[in-house]
């Protein structure tokens, strides 16, 4: 798995083949010819940390069936455990980042697009 940036460990380890991008604030500027923003909502990161807490809890609650699915996909229990641990790290990172400075250091942006 490769990342767009060498230091972008979350994107490279957690989201394979660029299925999800943790984007920059100017990314949408490159697509203005194709889509426009119909509406948007920006919230402090403290809302996202709550989601990460719930996802971490769900991962713990369903770790055995998740491990089985990932093992079938990757063909190795060691790789399945590695993936599960990488997701744990991702959720813990999101929790800690969202709690820092009452969640006001980062933000989460939601966009509703319309075709131009």
Q: What labels would you give this structure?
A:
single chain, 116 residues, alpha+beta, two-stranded antiparallel sheet, 16% strand
What does this structure look like?
The chain is extended. It has helices at 9-14, 45-61, 63-74, 77-99; strands at 35-44, 107-115. The chain has a two-stranded antiparallel sheet with strand order 1-2. The model has no long low-confidence stretch (mean pLDDT 81). The chain is of the alpha+beta class and 116 residues long. α2 runs antiparallel to α4 and α3 packs across α4 (77-99). The protein contains four helices and two strands, in the order αβαααβ.
Total DSSP helices: 4
Write down the overall geometry: extended
* Count of distinct strands: 2
How far from one another are the termini? 34 Å
Which H/E pattern describes the elements? HEHHHE
Low-confidence stretches: none
Structure classification: alpha+beta
Largest sheet: 2 strands, antiparallel
Helix percent band: 40-55%
Question: Kindly state the mean pLDDT as a whole number?
Answer: 81
CA radius of gyration: 17 Å
How are the secondary structure elements laid out?
Blueprint: H1 9-14, E1 35-44, H2 45-61, H3 63-74, H4 77-99, E2 107-115
Antiparallel strand pairs: 1-2
Keywords: Methyltransferase, S-adenosyl-L-methionine, Transferase
Family: Belongs to the CFA/CMAS family.
GO molecular function: methyltransferase activity
Q: Quick recap of the structure?
A:
The chain is of the alpha+beta class. It has helices at 9-14, 45-61, 63-74, 77-99; strands at 35-44, 107-115. α2 (45-61) runs antiparallel to α4.
